[in-house]
Amino acid sequence: MNSRGAMHHWFACPSAPRGACDLKTSAVGRLATSAQPFTFASVDLKPDDPLRLGNLFISRRYFSLMLIKNVSILESGQLLPGRDILIEEGKIAKMGSDLCNVSDDDEVIDGRGKLAIPGLINGHTHLAMTLLRGYADDMELMPWLQEKIWPLEAKITEEDVSWGVKLGCLEQIRFGITCYNDMYYFPDTAAKASKEMGLRAFISGVVFDMKPELLGQVEPFIRRWQGDELITPAVGPHAAYTCSEETLLKAKEIADRHDAMIHIHLSETSEEVDDFVLSKGKSPVEYLDSLGLLNSRLAAVHCVWLSLEDCRLLAERKANVVSCTVSNLKLTSGIAPLNTMMKANVNVCLGTDGASSNNNLSLFEEMKTTAIVQKNAYHTPAAFSAEQVWRLATENAARAFRLNMGLRPGSLADLVLIDLQKPWFCPQTNIISHLVYSMTGGVDTTIVNGKVLMREGVIPGEAEIMEKAQERFLRLTS
């Protein structure tokens, strides 16, 4: 693999009619049933199945409405306090001041001292590779892959993937990421684990020629998960240098048939580009274009080594580029020409890559590093503003993945509450600047599809997930 499961955290109570237990005051981490120890277990969850844990029933629609009261929002870069956000059926229903109170059966969140932002979107990762965090550092890409990562991945099982994905979901929830784009082995297992955790995800099983059986698993996987409220299946040919022309064309055919995203690593190293130019007389971007793969459903990851013609082609075909600055720097793959791409009108967004090459899943760190590196690459501090890089992790990513995101009525209720009562937000001058350059923590609450996954920094079952992930790492490296 090129660098690059836990519960869906609904509110839980003993199986009983609605209203039989009081969850009104049982925010995540403060369950009303806490007189009894509350444990989490891994379950085999299929799309749209209800979820049961022993005698516990986890309801998908326990609260009819959710009202976030007196929260601050950003409008044209300005902080506007005292706003209310009403959430219904997984979407933002209303926004305003002093919205009417909801009933006792509904949930109210006190937003005082907090900032509501759209959930961040991680445009590229290999989530199960959280299990390999710190396992192989300080190496260049191909030796890192061939000597360390691929041999260990040969031992990866479905259970490893499940707990690795759950660990990655924990981390993303803590960093305010509500949606991610993943490529790895055992996509059904990854989808189930992610759905249990409650995150929105684009999941693609990796495809490459050294494991030809993987290609035949793509379409059945897409059919199983199409239409799910949280999981969007995608097609994941690993790279142009690991997939033959035949494999790439078959992957495209499947994606076209199902209107699915294609997720691929592209032009990551200078060696990759040089090899293509020598062997095919084309850059990897030009080669994919000759096969018809450049389109608005393409998430082209890395794109470090691009010519002006490559940038023009990506823009003309409306392809999406996912930059993974920290991973590329750590593996010394290079610095992507983001400013050149954006001037050419390429839609650019951000990804963390896997935790084995980053080594965390923080888009806040990714934003700051990206801005600073681009300023130096173009030799001017004006090259990449905080506002520009903020859009990469929000608006641009939502456009790339065709998601109705943002703080407005009708959009998905995927949002994050940030605690403004932290030193790095003081003084409250330019809040977007603080989010990009100053933010080191302070995500208070993460909400996806109108469901609270973390509240006041508490995620139920977190300790068990980390314990199981540690066990899986020891198994892999024994």
Structural features:
single chain; 478 residues; alpha/beta; TIM Barrel; four-stranded mixed sheet; four-stranded antiparallel sheet; 15 helices; 19 strands; globular; disordered N terminus
Largest sheet: 4 strands, mixed
User: What percent of the residues sit in helical stretches (DSSP H or I)?
Assistant: 25-40%
| Ends apart, CA distance between termini | 20 Å
Radius of gyration, CA atoms, in whole angstroms:
22 Å
Give the amount of beta strand, in percent: 15-25%
**Can you say what the CATH homologous superfamily of the domain at 120-400 is?**
Metal-dependent hydrolases
- Which CATH class of the domain at 120-400? Alpha Beta
- Number of distinct helices: 15
Strand order of the largest sheet: 6-5-4-7
Write the layout of secondary structure elements.
Layout: E1 12-14, E2 51-53, E3 56-58, E4 65-75, E5 78-88, E6 91-96, E7 107-110, E8 114-118, E9 120-125, H1 141-153, H2 158-174, E10 177-184, H3 187-197, E11 200-207, H4 218-225, E12 231-237, H5 245-258, E13 262-266, H6 270-280, H7 284-290, E14 298-302, H8 308-316, E15 320-323, H9 325-330, H10 338-343, E16 347-350, H11 363-377, H12 386-393, H13 395-400, E17 415-419, H14 431-438, E18 443-448, E19 451-454, H15 462-477
Parallel strand pairs: 4-7, 9-10, 10-11, 11-12, 13-14, 14-15, 15-16
Antiparallel strand pairs: 1-3, 2-3, 4-5, 5-6, 8-17, 17-18, 18-19
Helix pairs in contact: 2-3, 2-15, 11-12, 11-14, 12-14
